[in-house]
Amino acid sequence: MVIIDFLDIRLDMIWNYKELFIRGIWVTLSLTAVGYVGGIILGLLFGLGKLSKRKWIYYPCKYYVDFFRGTPLLVQILIIHLAVIPTIFGHSLGYFISGAIALMLNCAAYNAEIIRAGIQSIERGQMEAARSLGMPHKTAMRYIILPQAFRRMVPPLGNELIALLKDSSLVTVIAANDLLYAGKVVAGAYARFWEPYITVAILYLLLTYIFTKIITYVEKRFSNSYIPTQRRRAFSFGRSPSAGG
C-alpha cells in the first residue's frame, strides 16, 4: 500500500500552485540575501569588537555573540516579530522585515566568530611589520590583515550562507510566503504530503547546489594557488607570465 501511494504521484498539485512556489523561491532568496549581507557587515563589526582590548567594546560584542549563538533561531524570530518590533514601532512591520532582521542578527553572530578566527590566524608579525613601517593600525588591518584573512574565511563564510538559506525556512512560523509555506498550503489544500514537501526539499536542494557551485568558484578564485587562464597558458609554454609575445 505504501509503495502504491508513493508511486501515485500527482504532479498536477504542484503545477496548480506553481506561482506560489515561484513566489516562495523569491522570498527565500530575498530573505537569505538581506540576512547574509547584513550579517557580513555586522559580523565584521562584532568580530573586530571581540578583538578589541577596550572592555566597553569587547564585552557588549561578546554578550551579543553568546546570546545569538546560544539561543534557537526560531525563538529569536518570534521574539523579534512579536515583542521587539511592536514595542519599538507600536505595530508589526510584516514578516519580511522581522524575518530579515532575525536572520541578519543571527548570521552576524556566527560571522563574527568566523571573522575573529580568520584575523587571529594571520601571523602577528604581519601587523608588527606594518606598524614598524609607520602604518596606522586601521590602515594595516584594512590593507594587509583583512585581505589575507578573507582568503581563509571564504569556506566557513560559504558554509554559513548555505546554513542561512536552509534556516530561512523557519520564518514560515510568522506567515512568511517562503518555500516551506508554499508546501504547507498545497499539503493543506489536497491533504497529501508527499508531493508538496518532496517538491520543497528538491527546490532547497537545487538552490543549495547552485550556491555551493558559486562558493566553490569564489573559494578557488581567492585561493593562494589560483592562476588565471592566460598565466596558466604562459606557464604551460615555459614562458614567464610577465613575458611579452
TrEMBL record:
The keyword Membrane applies. Keywords: Amino-acid transport, Cell membrane, Membrane, Transmembrane, Transmembrane helix, Transport. Gene3D superfamilies: MetI-like (1.10.3720.10). Pfam families: BPD_transp_1 (PF00528). CDD domains: TM_PBP2. It is a multi-pass membrane protein. Residues 25-215 form the ABC transmembrane type-1 domain. Its main location: membrane. It is found in: Cell membrane. The chain crosses the membrane at residues 20-46, 67-89, 95-112, 197-218. SUPFAM superfamilies: MetI-like. Belongs to the binding-protein-dependent transport system permease family. HisMQ subfamily. This is Polar amino acid transport system permease protein. It comes from Siminovitchia thermophila. The lineage of its organism: Bacteria, Bacillati, Bacillota, Bacilli, Bacillales.
